[in-house]
Amino acid sequence: MSEALDWNTRTIAEFRANEGKVGGVFQGAPIALLHHRGRKSGQQYVSPVMYLPHDTEPDVIYIFATGGGAPTNPDWYYNLAAAGDGSVERGTEAYQVAVHELRGAERDRIYAEQARRYQGFAEYERQTAGVRTIPVLELRRA
């Protein structure tokens, strides 16, 4: 098993065993498990992601396709963008979501807030500057 898959498997198990909480580098951060179908393979995947809750709408969260600062977007981003929907686990709850990609000033405002709260996101943006703009997706309970 690759190191990334092994890390995901451990994080998913810890999330589910602790009602949505994980330790390590994500200690205290809001984490969701993102369920998506491969756009080419049709295979089901689960990816742990940090999210930013909407200020006033509890049924909306924002996720960030940082890929850890990689020069390319993560596969889950392409899968969700192609499907337009997916599902998430937050805490002990699982539900379907509609996916909407944010653009322009709205995208920039949401990303800046996440980077303000979690410095690693500012670093991801520095690493990808001039290579790609990190996508921000709004997930709204369907």
Description:
- This protein has helices at 3-17, 75-83, 104-117, 119-128, and strands at 31-37, 44-53, 60-64, 85-90, 93-102, 136-141.
- Helix 3 packs across helix 4.
- Strands 1-2-3-6-5-4 form a six-stranded antiparallel barrel.
- The chain has four helices and six strands; from the N terminus they run αβββαββααβ.
- The chain is globular.
- The model has no long low-confidence stretch (mean pLDDT 95).
- The protein starts with a helix and ends with a strand.
- Strand 2 (44-53) and strand 3 (60-64) form a beta hairpin.
- It is of the alpha+beta class and 142 residues long.
Q: Radius of gyration, Cα only, in angstroms? A: 14 Å
Order of helices and strands: HEEEHEEHHE
Overall residue-averaged pLDDT value: 95
Sheet with the most strands: spatial strand order: 1-2-3-6-5-4
Helix content: 25-40%
Largest sheet: 6 strands, antiparallel, barrel
Low-confidence stretches: none
Overall, the morphology is globular
Please work out how many helical segments DSSP would assign.
4
Structural classification: alpha+beta
What is the number of strand segments? 6
Strand content: 25-35%
- Cα-to-Cα separation, first versus last residue: 34 Å
Describe what is shown at a glance.
This protein has 142 residues and is of the alpha+beta class. 34% of the residues lie in helices and 31% in strands. Strands 1-2-3-6-5-4 form a six-stranded antiparallel barrel.
